[in-house]
Specification:
Layout: E1 5-9, H1 17-27, E2 31-35, H2 37-42, H3 48-58, H4 61-78, E3 82-86, H5 93-102, E4 107-112, H6 121-125, E5 132-135, H7 140-146, E6 152-154, H8 161-164, E7 176-181, H9 186-198, E8 204-207, H10 211-214, H11 218-221, E9 224-226, H12 231-239, E10 241-246, H13 258-265, E11 270-273, E12 289-291, H14 294-306, H15 308-324, H16 328-345
Helix pairs in contact: 1-16, 4-5
């Protein structure tokens, strides 16, 4: 298959989804170009800090439009074979239409790694101009098709083995017994209350935004250690925690969130709330330990604590599946294969 020049439109930090895909593109020996819409927009923001604050809250259309013009010019200059737009809340339909005019052979791929709850009118406006739409939830495929999107495919999130990959902790020398990393949500506080109440003698830790502001349980709040933990530090933390709890956000259900893949990529054991779309791939008590209610949560934690050999087997099995099938190189290869089939269809 030919080597492609792929332009990725989206944030450009060390630990964002766009960077995971950029690394995957390189690993498949395609070339990659980055267009950071956030940085490019800042070039056009006026009124200093006040203007930046206004734009963050309201998004001044003329500044976004100038960024979109820069994107069109970049496409004309670089002549990519594929443009990979990640989320793309501020990509205007007019810019995509212009790209279609000046580079008609370029394929437009839109990756939507989020709940449909966060769709906006701008997303919907370019539904029919996108060649391939990749959604992270299998259940959402028919919904996006009904909204008019072309060639909608299920491309779940995955493990970034370059960023989070670590050898499994084989020495049982864990720094934390039970951990949770993620933003505060009422359903998450409820789960962690059960954990704290029933396993108070263990070392329990919580990292994530908004816990200090929104957590109602003062005893549970004592377990909160800070807001941010990212990249390699995050992987190290998962590896050094005996049990890593993942509580799927109610609006993400039934799909898997990023945490679902990050924990086993780092060699951690994952205790996860129900995640129907992945339960056929990552099996209960073989790759991931699932719980459906408070009773199961307590039962599964007890089982993990009293079966360290089984826990190690789960860590190894899950990480093997990540390395073999559920990483961003495999996801990117699927996108390339789908585009190839689209070309054959033409």
């Amino acid at each position: 298959m030919q080597k492609l020049k792929i332009l990725i439109v989206g944030a450009n930090s060390n630990f964002c989804l766009e960077t995971s895909y950029a690394t995957a593109v390189k690993s498949l020996h395609h070339s990659v170009i980055r267009f950071d819409h956030i940085i490019e927009t800042k070039k056009h923001v006026r009124l200093g800090k006040v203007g930046a604050l206004i734009h963050n809250l309201l998004h001044v259309d003329i500044w976004d439009k100038k960024m979109n013009r820069d994107l069109v010019i970049t496409v004309k200059k670089e002549v990519p074979d594929v443009i990979l737009i990640v989320k793309g809340a501020h990509m205007h339909y007019g810019a995509l239409a212009t790209i279609r005019v000046i580079q008609p052979l370029c394929k437009l791929v839109w990756i939507w790694p989020d709940t449909p709850l966060n769709l906006n009118q701008n997303n919907l406006s370019y539904a029919r101009i996108i060649d391939l739409t990749a959604v992270y939830s299998q259940q959402a495929v028919t919904v996006f098709r009904s909204l008019g999107f072309n060639h909608v495919e299920w491309i779940p999130l995955a493990g970034d083995v370059d960023l989070h990959g670590k050898p499994i902790n084989a020495n049982e020398n864990f720094d934390c017994d039970i951990s949770f990393v993620g933003m505060w949500r009422p359903e998450r506080e409820k789960v962690m209350q059960v954990v704290n109440k029933n396993f108070s003698s263990l070392k329990i830790e919580i990292y994530g935004e908004n816990w200090k502001r929104d957590c109602k349980d003062k005893n549970l709040l004592k377990k909160w250690k800070g807001e941010g933990i990212y990249a390699r530090e995050l992987a190290n933390y998962f590896s050094k925690s005996r049990i890593n709890i993942n509580i799927i956000d109610d609006t993400n259900y039934p799909a898997a969130n990023m945490r679902f893949f990050e924990i086993p990529t780092a060699g951690g054991l994952e205790l996860c709330s129900s995640c129907p779309e992945m339960e056929g791939f990552f099996l209960d008590s073989k790759d991931v330990v699932y719980f459906k209610d408070e009773g199961q949560l307590i039962e599964k934690i007890d089982w993990i604590l009293t079966n360290p050999k089984a826990a190690q087997s789960i860590r190894r099995s899950a990480q093997t599946k990540i390395n073999e099938d559920h990483n961003y190189a495999s996801r990117m290869q699927k996108i390339v294969d789908l585009l190839f089939n689209l070309n054959k269809g033409n």
